[in-house]
Amino acid sequence: MSCTNKKYLSLMNKVLDEEATEREKHELYEHLDSCNECRVHFNELTYSTELLRRLAHPQLSAAFTKSVLDQLPAEKRHVILRWGSRHPVLTAVAICAVPMSLVVIGARHQTRDKNDYVLVNVSGDQT
């Protein structure tokens, strides 16, 4: 196809995949009326798509699927990663709890004055 506007090739695919809007279909069909090369290409795509739809879809037995899965190599994931993927909520709680615990422990060790304000000791020159 040597049509210079690649937009129509995209529209052809959308129409064949049944994803095009009515406006897009109308735009494509108007172009096909005036462009012989695109019309031929669209007819070839339509024919190919129809042939693919006619193909039989084989149903595989459960025994086939099990035999393929049994032949796959053993999973070599770390125990913690495996546990984390099985328990995402607990993993998120643990990830949040550790830093928050450190903040609370750090805050308890700061000095307080008699009005219960936290005094932060900063080292270095402050002007």
What distinguishing features does this structure have?
mainly alpha; single chain; 6 helices; two-stranded antiparallel sheet; 64% helix; elongated; 127 residues
How would you summarize the topology of this molecule?
Blueprint: H1 7-16, H2 22-34, H3 36-54, H4 62-71, H5 79-86, H6 88-108, E1 111-112, E2 118-119
Antiparallel strand pairs: 1-2
Helix pairs in contact: 1-2, 1-3, 2-3
Report what the structure shows.
This protein is mostly helical and 127 residues long. The chain has two domains: 7-54, no CATH class; 79-119, no CATH class. The protein has six helices and two strands; from the N terminus they run ααααααββ. The protein has helices at residues 7-16, 22-34, 36-54, 62-71, 79-86, 88-108; strands at 111-112, 118-119. It has a two-stranded antiparallel ribbon. β1 and β2 (118-119) form a beta hairpin. The longest helix has 21 residues, at 88-108. It is elongated and about 85 Å long. The N and C termini lie far apart (74 Å).
Which sheet architecture does the biggest sheet show? Answer: 2 strands, antiparallel
Number of strands: 2
Number of helix segments?
Answer: 6
**Structural class assignment:** mainly alpha
Q: Which range does the strand content fall in?
A: under 5%
The low-confidence parts are: none
Mean pLDDT: 81
Helix percent band: 55-70%
Distance N to C terminus: 74 Å
Q: Into how many domains do the coordinates divide?
A: 2
Order of helices and strands: HHHHHHEE
What strand order characterises the main sheet? 1-2
Q: What form results from the Cα inertia axes?
A: elongated
Estimated radius of gyration: 33 Å
